[in-house]
Design brief:
Elements lengths: L1 E9 L4 H15 L5 E8 L6 E8 L2 H8 L2 H10 L4 E10 L12
Antiparallel strand pairs: 1-3, 1-4, 2-3
Helix pairs in contact: 1-3
Length: about 100
């Protein structure tokens, strides 16, 4: 399994267009083969700061995601966000254990 994690800072004046584009790319990415999770989370303490978290079952799935048409659309949309900082890392996970589970 691969985990992709990072953050993105944008001009807070562009929150609405960014959120719309993020919702669209999340919806399309969730349909992709090999995607386990894909989410942007807006932090509570800093307007314009988003956390990025993704899980993929293989490098091939992640590579296909990066070439997907909706990623090209999202990449163009990012040009209007006023990005001031971005850092995204990929982690290769060798073992996964459940730490806590409750409910269904």
């Amino acid at each position: 399994m691969l985990v992709v994690s990072g953050h993105l800072r944008i001009d807070p004046n562009n929150l609405e267009i960014a959120k719309k584009a993020m919702e669209e790319v999340m919806t399309e990415t969730h349909k992709e083969a090999g995607n386990i999770s894909y989410v942007f989370t807006h932090t509570l303490d800093e307007p314009g700061h988003f956390r990025i978290f993704e899980e993929w079952d293989s490098q091939d799935a992640l590579d296909a995601h990066m070439k997907a048409p909706h990623m090209a659309v999202f990449g163009k949309a990012m040009g209007g966000f006023g990005v001031t900082e971005i850092l995204i890392k990929r982690y290769q996970v060798g073992e996964v254990d459940t730490l806590l589970e409750k409910g269904s």
